[in-house]
Amino acid sequence: MGINILWDRQAPEGIELPVARMIEMILGREAGFVEYPLLIDGYDRNRNQHDAQKILDRLQDTLTRRYEVAGPLLLVTSRDLYVNGCDFVFGLARPASGVAVVSTARLGNSYYGRTPDDADLIDRTAKEGAHEVGHLLGLGHCENPECVMFRPRTLDELDRKKKMLCPACREAAGSGREG
What we know:
This protein is of the alpha/beta class. The chain has helices spanning 16-27, 52-66, 118-136, 155-160, 167-173, and strands at residues 3-7, 31-33, 43-44, 49-51, 73-77, 81-82, 91-94, 99-103.
């Protein structure tokens, strides 16, 4: 089963292919791009963020039902995301419906006043994308801070993760890929 990636038109351009290839390497599954019209819902003016749950609702309703996308579906967007109870999230998955979203809003160096670097953005987007797709494949959060399935709460924690599953998560995923 391949991984479907929907790249939002507002997401950073030029990094799509390297991100997809890294996700393939991490999870041991082919990834390809899909293009469908999608309205991004859930903007909250008070927060200046989008509700990730509402985006997943739209993904689930529009794409999995109307277009019958087969396999996990990951939306990459530049919109800043939140869920109730959290100031922000890098991404969110809904395993029951096979959809996930990742935001690049807080993955770029410029958000933190650092020198922009596409390599950092690609690395972080791929790790977070693989993390969310990992949930769609049945993986939970991992306690190993270097595993891609570790739940990062900060950019530094995300940067510490390696572009691989730990042995236990790799076995659980059944990918059989070595890091």
